[in-house]
Amino acid sequence: MNTEESPAGKKISRKPFSRLKQERERRGWSQNDVAKKIGTNQINISRWENATTTPSPYFRQKLGGLFGKSLQELGLFSEVEDSNSEQGGSTSTSSMSIWNVPYRRNPFFTGREEILINLFQALNSSKRAALTQAKVISGLGGIGKTQIAVEYAYRYRENYSAVLWVIASSRDTLITEFVLLAVLLDLPELHEQDQEIVLTAVKRWLVARKNWLLILDNVEDLQAVVDFLPVDGEGNILFTTRLQALGSIGEGIEVEKMSVDEGMLFLLRRTRFLASDAPLSPGSGYRQYIGCTPSGSRSGRCLYRGNKVRLTRLSQSLPHKT
């Protein structure tokens, strides 16, 4: 989750937080420099260094990758994890939930219920993570594939001990993302110079654990991802891709354009003519105001009576709420 504070109940030892400041000053960076590098603000960096608040798992992963240090070395290892380590137990199966989804949940997410339900049923019919059992969300660019994956992750996160998000647009990107996973998982091999050793360590972690979800977003080359995935394991694998020819790499779920009612409901929620959880009333008379894809609405453009217009103009043309 792309938030700045750790979830409730996940306490992190606050005394070592000065290590963040030490590592930052060693590199001659300001708090603002660090904030820009990991996508947050200077206020959060100051709070983390002063132990006023704690970074979420997402930003712990980013900080570890930025400084090239393990979570323990940065003082970001949770007390829950330390306790488990002292007792010789696993820190990653039942005692904690690992999460690095980089998007907030979309409050305007609309429809796609059948896809989400089918995804959950298909993924959980077998927990084996063989490639042939991976699920692939495919469709045109801007159709909403990533948003479906984000909604799935949030909606069903309680069913998984770990939800791991990887940007998979190229092999180089995959290597970078898997190295960051090694930081997030605090694997002993994370300092290895040989990236193959790090990749193997992440795959070994996946094979040894249960009930994880690995999401590979924006896959451009299906064959390129094969080297990054475990040959076995008790978890789920989910891709998003624009590719249509999937071969035998996984079972495809094609995302089509929204139905008339879904598109209308999404648009009315997006323009705040309806509350985010309000249904569409029968006979509401808005059917002429449809034609948005999810990406079109987010960028502020859609079709109004067959013409492309901005949502600001569209909101002026819609019938006034009573």
Can you offer a commentary on this structure?
The chain has 322 residues and is an alpha/beta fold. The protein folds into 3 domains: 15-86, 434 Repressor (Amino-terminal Domain) (Orthogonal Bundle), CATH 1.10.260; 98-254, P-loop containing nucleotide triphosphate hydrolases (Rossmann fold); 260-317, no CATH class. The chain has helices spanning 18-26, 31-38, 42-49, 57-67, 79-86, 113-124, 145-155, 171-184, 195-208, 260-270, 294-298, 311-317, and strands at 98-99, 135-138, 162-167, 210-219, 234-241, 251-254, 301-304, 307-310. A 6-stranded parallel β-sheet has the order 1-3-4-5-2-6, sandwiched between helices. It has a two-stranded antiparallel ribbon with strand order 7-8. Strand 7 (301-304) and strand 8 form a beta hairpin. Helix 8 (171-184) crosses helix 9 (195-208). Mean pLDDT is 74; it is low at 1-16, 78-96, 289-293 and 295-311.
List strands and helices in order, with pairings:
Elements: H1 18-26, H2 31-38, H3 42-49, H4 57-67, H5 79-86, E1 98-99, H6 113-124, E2 135-138, H7 145-155, E3 162-167, H8 171-184, H9 195-208, E4 210-219, E5 234-241, E6 251-254, H10 260-270, H11 294-298, E7 301-304, E8 307-310, H12 311-317
Parallel strand pairs: 1-3, 2-5, 2-6, 3-4, 4-5
Antiparallel strand pairs: 7-8
Helix pairs in contact: 2-3, 4-8, 8-9
